[in-house]
Amino acid sequence: MIFKRIKSEGLAQNSYFICSEDEAVVIDPRRDCEVYIDLAKREEVKIKYIFETHRNEDYVIGSIELSNLTRAEIFHGPGLNWGYGTILHNGNVSHIGNLKLTALHTPGHTGESMSYVLAESEEPVLVFTGDALFVGDVGRIDIYGPEEAPRLAGVLYDSIFNKILTLGDGVILCPAHGAGSVCGGKISARDESTIGIERAQNPVLQLSKEDFIEHKVSEHHERPPYFRQMEKYNLEGPPLLGRLPIPPPLTPEMFKEEMERGAVVVDARTPPAFGGAHIKGSYSIWLEGLPAYAGWVLTYGKTILLVLECRDHLDKAVRYLVRLGYDNIVGYLRGGIEAWYDSGFRIEYMGLSSVHNLKQRLDSGEDVLVLDVRDENEWKEGHIKGALHIYAGQLESRLREIPRDRSITIVCNVGHRASLAASILLRAGYPNVCCDVLGSMTAWRVSNFPMTKE
Amino acid sequence: MIFKRIKSEGLAQNSYFICSEDEAVVIDPRRDCEVYIDLAKREEVKIKYIFETHRNEDYVIGSIELSNLTRAEIFHGPGLNWGYGTILHNGNVSHIGNLKLTALHTPGHTGESMSYVLAESEEPVLVFTGDALFVGDVGRIDIYGPEEAPRLAGVLYDSIFNKILTLGDGVILCPAHGAGSVCGGKISARDESTIGIERAQNPVLQLSKEDFIEHKVSEHHERPPYFRQMEKYNLEGPPLLGRLPIPPPLTPEMFKEEMERGAVVVDARTPPAFGGAHIKGSYSIWLEGLPAYAGWVLTYGKTILLVLECRDHLDKAVRYLVRLGYDNIVGYLRGGIEAWYDSGFRIEYMGLSSVHNLKQRLDSGEDVLVLDVRDENEWKEGHIKGALHIYAGQLESRLREIPRDRSITIVCNVGHRASLAASILLRAGYPNVCCDVLGSMTAWRVSNFPMTKE
Amino acid sequence: MIFKRIKSEGLAQNSYFICSEDEAVVIDPRRDCEVYIDLAKREEVKIKYIFETHRNEDYVIGSIELSNLTRAEIFHGPGLNWGYGTILHNGNVSHIGNLKLTALHTPGHTGESMSYVLAESEEPVLVFTGDALFVGDVGRIDIYGPEEAPRLAGVLYDSIFNKILTLGDGVILCPAHGAGSVCGGKISARDESTIGIERAQNPVLQLSKEDFIEHKVSEHHERPPYFRQMEKYNLEGPPLLGRLPIPPPLTPEMFKEEMERGAVVVDARTPPAFGGAHIKGSYSIWLEGLPAYAGWVLTYGKTILLVLECRDHLDKAVRYLVRLGYDNIVGYLRGGIEAWYDSGFRIEYMGLSSVHNLKQRLDSGEDVLVLDVRDENEWKEGHIKGALHIYAGQLESRLREIPRDRSITIVCNVGHRASLAASILLRAGYPNVCCDVLGSMTAWRVSNFPMTKE
Amino acid sequence: MIFKRIKSEGLAQNSYFICSEDEAVVIDPRRDCEVYIDLAKREEVKIKYIFETHRNEDYVIGSIELSNLTRAEIFHGPGLNWGYGTILHNGNVSHIGNLKLTALHTPGHTGESMSYVLAESEEPVLVFTGDALFVGDVGRIDIYGPEEAPRLAGVLYDSIFNKILTLGDGVILCPAHGAGSVCGGKISARDESTIGIERAQNPVLQLSKEDFIEHKVSEHHERPPYFRQMEKYNLEGPPLLGRLPIPPPLTPEMFKEEMERGAVVVDARTPPAFGGAHIKGSYSIWLEGLPAYAGWVLTYGKTILLVLECRDHLDKAVRYLVRLGYDNIVGYLRGGIEAWYDSGFRIEYMGLSSVHNLKQRLDSGEDVLVLDVRDENEWKEGHIKGALHIYAGQLESRLREIPRDRSITIVCNVGHRASLAASILLRAGYPNVCCDVLGSMTAWRVSNFPMTKE
Question: Cβ of C439 under 8 Å from any chain B Cβ?
């Protein structure tokens, strides 16, 4: 048996490749699926089955893509009107080489959520828990809306305590997400865990059922608009890629033409570089932030243009967007921002600031509107007194809450989302005074500057 | 925390790279250690510590090599007069980023054997057990000789049951070897396990202490002569490589000159190819067999020449030999065996046979000496009636037991070691009639041909 | 400007990638065309044009494949009823960045053959001569049959002397083939040349027009049957691949089933390995011989199975076959020939011999039929007295010339084609006595054994 | 014969690897020489000889490094008191496989400058001209100072016209540098050329001997201070690396400590990113500018710290510095500039401007000191009226010419060297008002803004 965890950075999504003898199975494949084909080639196996743990909301599932290349059979959980694949039920057993995979219906995160238990003999060795149980946390229960949340929390509790934990302490845990995922709040940065470790250390599992439900219902999770598209895609089956798109390099002139035809510009450079010079109208989303933030501001109807730090980032940027279903990338700026200004095209700046400067301005009584764009959980743990709180993802739809006549300084955790927020304000025509505070609340806290809580 | 298992194929040796924040530790590094340097570069960490679980017998430990390139500090267990590094004692704690590594003295395989327990908070997550506990088996206790074996078996039992199993079922097991290692008999082909899985499924752990001792003492393990060199190297510190040797390509003429100067030829091709044509005097050791079998026939004083299936095999062959301390590889045959015979140089053949042919000859009453070169454990599980049993590794020193006047047909498990054995007989001047049975006892068994047990 | 020669080994076919500013052109792309896509990505250019020098006979042109992925425009020469692309005429100019490519109609090898002259300013720098002018040789003129040959030879002479050589001695030569191609007899092993070097050193260019024509007409070239399929494909447009096929690994059982369904087995191992053990009915075509010899024995209607030396050869074998249009590869033997005989399946041998042994047998007066399967040119330069000459490619259709009652020993240049020939005889049921002489006429000549000429 | 041009980007240095049969030669190897080892491995050859065309000034020659790993013999030209290798004289012939390399003494650039002519038969095919003849230009003759320049120019003319051009138009040209090298002014961006093309198109070769000398003597070339160290190294033999240094990742705290111990910080990010935020005291040298500009400001006694755009740039930055002999790189900032400001450490900005903004300020009569840091040749082709001209490389030693009380705006060709210049002023304590004009004179020219000539 060979076992590989394939991490999709940014999404913090885990898929799994397991093989035995001449057969392999993939759990929750991503859409850019050549990684599984390559593993299968290396191990000289045939991918026989694809198992989905649930209809994912945060990315396009790659089952159909992979099945198209390998003819592997696709399986998922019961209760949905799937447009592809075969439904499994609790207790169904599949065989891969000398391995046995048993389906475990573990609803809670969603109704059709499945876990899969892998064994060589009778004793289970690994369990793939999808979004039911993570390392250090459990899945969200807010997907069906607040009315359903308490019921789902209870269902999730039962799935975890009655079906997963009972597999035994020695079973190795293989969840669908790691730290940084939008599908969990406090997932551990460590990937290695077991039922025993979670039973002992996972803080949520230390609660009574009542407390568990209350805790889960009171949690706040953001829900980016692109989730709707993902749910539709993953239920019906997303469009086939065949291969990753290769956006062409565009000269500044060609780039400008595409802008004029309506393409939206995503600048994936770092905030200091974006601040230093960018194309008017660009969204600032740092490369590793694309999986989590592109889905808040990009719409599926528009074509996309990329500005990158360096050519080597193209492949990553494309993967990140394609995983969210943004296939329509019409090109990237050849030679980067330098090519733009070398051609005499106009550039725009974004104000950059430091925590020391912000502190000084606040202390001096200057009129500064501090806009804090972190999420609700971060905000609640402490913020600058007098700051206005709007989550970066929601900023575009709440612009009317932001005055146009004040000097705006934006903070987030380290300055990345503040840069996105600043780019949104710049696009909306706010005068060129909105500052991204580099280091933001992280540097603020390290500097021991004062914070308040609601 | 990032955790990587690095498998050295052939040796079936596991080393581990773990990092947290900006620091990393390597457990039991191999000698061709650029793999750890590359991981450290990729994760942007500094290798701070190197931990050895024990003085290995089966390969040259890479601690000094790696330390030379990284200045990492080396640690190992107590009771030996080490020529390098620092001795740790039971309970000693080291820190890597936010991780805690606790030394656990777990003697039994050897006196100084250590395990290392990794935890983030107080609760252990991973345990590195060296040669104490494997997936599905436990370590050898024959290293100090038969007199010491019973005592060591008891010590090992106590180390496992009192120190390792007590860490808790949920702790993930990270042993020093996987399936195929000469350091364990029945190690599982699966790498993933936990204390809980071993407690429940490891057959040796189901025994009482008495039965455990009896079982271990009765086990038979081979002990290749190169172990002595490894023990010396690993105690005193092996010679520094600096970088992997790059043996030059040699024309047939140059190759022949080196042979005449005393170099020994290792032919790393498959048995059918070796049978089809080879250079007189070559040892036949298939590529993946080098780690386990080179140490039986090669001496450290002589230079080595290689004949390879294809150029791409050179790197692997060199690594395999260097891991056993065979650094003196003076070249390889450019263009392979074809270059040799294209130059008009003479070739030699090895007889090849099939199980069907062997069966027929035996049935017809032909005088055939079947030489079975598998190890004692394999032999005991069933063999061809009337076969002579000498383990391939010991063949060279037991040649006098083999008559020169009979037709010899050699079997092993699949035909690899039979080819080595045949090459030994050919080198020793046995007439060119010794046959390697392709498929050997595996094909014999599948064909339902009759077998006997002692 | 960036210039790359892409060599397709085995076919000895050259394609060229040239880019300037943000645009690129590819000349004579091969069908596995991701190499050009990768270059375009690396250089951040868009492939704008594809130029074909002529309708190739020896491989499937990759223009449509590449155009499908890049939308590049395809151009070729006049006079054929092409199923795709646009016809260029002598003197037509295209621009790529700051480069100028001028079409030069240079018929002779075929009627529509084009050369392309690349210049930055007015002065030419490079010329792409297709199959008109090679390094050290010129193109074949036998493609339209013997009646047309004299006329074509004259046309070729004029194209070379009046259109190509007049470009100037300093122009760098970029032909469509290098040494080893079936499209030229004596192409130099060196790729670098210029008009000046060829004018001075190319032996064919030293002849008068009359001698040139006579020389070309008297040349003998083989014409494998797959040429017809290539001509059809390259005229009409071959089927799209989309991506390289990935033949699945097959267990011996599955492999056998495919054989029983009619698949033909190609064993791409070396002759000694094939001799040592192979599956009954296999063709022996060594890996690097696939481009030149698969087209003689494989038909397009049948599925193909592969036996490989090692897994790493799969990609190469697939490319080699796909370049000839053999897309229907249903799988390869997982674990190689060893898996076959380990499963108890029967194997077959091929006799292997050495030149020393053959010499001895001939000297001793033994009845040996020496079958020489080299091509006519090689045969004419000297052979073993009394040998029967049938070219390996034609053997299958000339079996009736070979007696079934004699001991047959086969020679070629080094033993590769002899192995193919032996496998053909074995397939045809010749008794298991046909020997491949390893080293063949190369070793024979080096050994100073006697040869004769017709 | 296999021929490879190895381009060292940034330096625009060409080295060459040529092999025939089982032997290879390397011409002008660079110091990070594993590229040649890898080629030799791939082609299965032994590097037998290393030829140097001259004692280079602009980089550390890698002969000793490569010879140390391969035992290849080193050769160079006559007249210098070399600390290693063997001197060749005009006409000396060496053999590599079936190739013949003839030494040609072609002084002019320096006294010991050699060319090497490669032939298979009698006729030359390639010529390696070192710094004598480039594509589109010829070598500098100012290395021995202005007194020697006229004499050297004449010598160079004779070497080119009497020794190189006489080889024949068809010979392929292989010079030591391509476009962008500090060793030539107007080398073509195209690498492919021949004697014939140069004879016809190289503008310098169209001059009479008198005009040639006058032209060469009147040329202006910069001469960075590190040239002296290179000349010493390349004469005596530079220190051995063994392998490329691997600078450790440093946390901001560790980085700061090294700064306090005296290390100099090189920030290799782009100007907009450097402008957006950087560490006080850093030199701004964009990644691809390291080979040409590090040698102007870095001294050999000090340790070096790196700030990089992304981790992937480390390898390139290290190579670039090591090629100039800067081996003492003590580390790089882990996590980049973000880690610095996230830790609450203070950052500094550099003013960034656009040509539109500069134009507006100049038009409005604002007091702006425009500092133009391009080289003399660029300056002479046109500049902004009233600008002060000091070449970036010389800025640090001419600071007293720059007033501290004026607003300074810096231009170069595109903004890279302006950023270096601005960082020099910031280091020197100029108030934080010095602006780097992004796009600089390139954008200025494209925008049709007015320029003047001296």
Answer: yes
